[in-house]
Amino acid sequence: MLDIIILAVQVLLALLGGYSLFFSFFGFYRKKRTSHFNAQKKFAVLIAAHNEEKVVGALIDNLKQLDYPKELYDVFVICDNCSDQTAQIAKQMGVYACVRNNPSLRGKGYAIEWMLKELWKMPKSYDGVVILDADNLVNADFLQHMNNELCSGSKVIQAYLDTKNPGDSWITAAYAITYWFCNRLWQLPRTNLKLANFLGGTGMCFDSNLLKEMGWGATSLVEDLEFTVRCVKRGINPTMSYDAKVYDEKPLTFKASARQRLRWMQGHFDVARRYFFPLLWQGIKERSWAKIDTAIYTFNVYNVLLGFIFSVILWVDVALPGTRHFTSLYDYMPTWLMAVVTVAVYVGFPVAMMLEKVKSWKMYASLIVYPIYLASWWPITLYAFFTQNNKQWSHTQHTRVIRLEDVKSKQV
């Protein structure tokens, strides 16, 4: 019976892997957006900040230089449980400094929920709400693209997520490779197939009326995934603006990266536990591919977990002397086919980089150590499974200032 279970899990994981591989081929082409609208939407740009005095000034400067009418957007810095000069810097630079002190409800999701309630009380109204992290930078045309999306009927929009500091270390390079891959071969295929895109935590834009109607309500450690699922359940598919770019600063060290990714996986387990089955059944009943696909995406955290556990079981079984106890899926498939599939999965990363016109040879050289980064997700996910009830937000420290011109000058 145990042998049958192990084989069945292998088949399930193979099917999920094949499903992801199938999707990636729809990212090989990209349709250029043709719809352009005059600047007309008013935006509230929210910056989520917790002790971000080192970087928040650079983002505020960046936002002041956007190619969008200044009277059509306001910047609000959510100074969430700050003990540094974040609020003072925001005030000195002429934007709204919204101070929140609630040590018992910490984290970005709670901060956004509080800020939205404060925003609706204000006399000025906005058509859209943009959410950024304090360490971000955006291209000058960012709000113009969001204006185009809202005017085209989109209600929830995710910008193109790029990395602010890809050349800092092998870890930041790994993040950059992951972002290029996800943008091109995860997000774009869903755009081309008219399915739901996934929110990425920053560079997000929301129709104000939708937020007022459904509320924020996403206070898990992965508020972006939680809000994505809530939207899809309501029949609202988030879209992606491929031309609106946001640059996100990534941790420099493996330790800081592991801490960040642990939080992501803890939150992912929480969302999967609460939403996977309801969304899957709803998608099956309604014959909605978008809902089924989003449900499968929430299950990915279990995909990684099961892949790790059962790979270890099979490796140990092979390593032990004597007759093997368990059947491997490899026993039923030609060696050449498994080799082709394995190569195809890994080749997806350099292919995505080439499609995204990455020119830096250092980034391609980083692919040599990239498998270490990929393999590190396994123990992180296993630990996250046993600590998934932890709701403690872990803050990523930033110690230097990077401006948009710095990013552009080192464009890879």
Set down the secondary structure blueprint:
Layout: H1 2-24, E1 43-49, H2 56-64, E2 73-80, H3 86-92, E3 96-100, H4 108-121, E4 128-133, E5 137-138, H5 142-151, E6 156-163, H6 170-192, E7 204-207, H7 208-214, H8 223-233, E8 239-248, H9 254-286, H10 289-319, H11 335-355, H12 361-365, H13 370-386, H14 404-409
Helix pairs in contact: 1-10, 6-11, 8-9, 8-10, 9-10, 9-13, 10-13
Describe the protein in words:
α9 (254-286) packs across α13 (370-386). The protein has 2 domains: 2-27 and 271-386, no CATH class; 43-171 and 196-252, Spore Coat Polysaccharide Biosynthesis Protein SpsA, Chain A (Alpha-Beta Complex), CATH 3.90.550. The protein is built from 14 helices and 8 strands. Strands 3-2-1-4-7-6-8-5 form an 8-stranded mixed sheet, with helices on both faces. 53% of the residues lie in helices and 12% in strands. The model has no long low-confidence stretch (mean pLDDT 91). By secondary structure, the chain is of the alpha/beta class. The protein has helices at residues 2-24, 56-64, 86-92, 108-121, 142-151, 170-192, 208-214, 223-233, 254-286, 289-319, 335-355, 361-365, 370-386, 404-409; strands spanning 43-49, 73-80, 96-100, 128-133, 137-138, 156-163, 204-207, 239-248.
